[in-house]
Design goal:
Layout: H1 9-23, H2 27-43, H3 48-52, H4 58-74, H5 83-87, H6 94-111, H7 114-138
Helix pairs in contact: 2-4, 2-6, 6-7
């Protein structure tokens, strides 16, 4: 089902304003979360090499990720992209998704007030599960409930 806020800029603006008032989330908070998170990613032994092999200019990536999370948590509609297509070729497995979520949750908890936590954390968990399932399926791996993505190179 299509969200009517996708087509009605006034409704979208009202929803965004209501979310900001109820949670304290604004574009500055989103920017702070995204920038801190990716600072941690760059320094991370598990995820850093995957990102550094693909991103040389972080500015456009951070702008895009701020737009993405603005669309997710504030329903601004700023992001236009296909995350699954970007993630399919990555050499990732379950441990990468677990690490991504752990860093994301730690960052969100450090930056956001309690009222904002679920708007950042619940979608992140769903996004990670969806990406993991999509990548597993694209690799021909079983995607049954409870099964996790195994390494692309067949390592256990």
């Amino acid at each position: 089902m299509t969200d009517p806020s996708d087509f009605d800029p006034q409704r979208r603006a009202r929803l965004t304003a209501e979310l900001t008032a109820a949670t304290g989330i604004d574009e500055a908070m989103i920017r702070d979360v995204v920038h801190r998170f990716y600072e941690r990613i760059r320094d991370d032994a598990v995820l850093g090499p995957i990102f550094s092999a693909r991103i040389t200019d972080w500015t456009p990536h951070l702008v895009q990720m701020c737009a993405f999370w603005s669309s997710v948590v504030l329903m601004t509609g700023r992001y236009r992209g296909q995350p699954m297509q970007k993630h399919l070729p990555l050499p990732v497995d379950a441990r990468h998704f677990d690490r991504w979520l752990a860093l994301w949750e730690d960052t969100v908890r450090a930056v956001c007030p309690p009222a904002a936590l679920d708007l950042f954390l619940e979608p992140a968990r769903r996004i990670a599960a969806s990406l993991e399932l999509g990548i597993a399926s694209a690799r021909g791996q079983s995607a049954a409930k409870g099964q996790r993505l195994s390494p692309a190179d067949g390592r256990a």
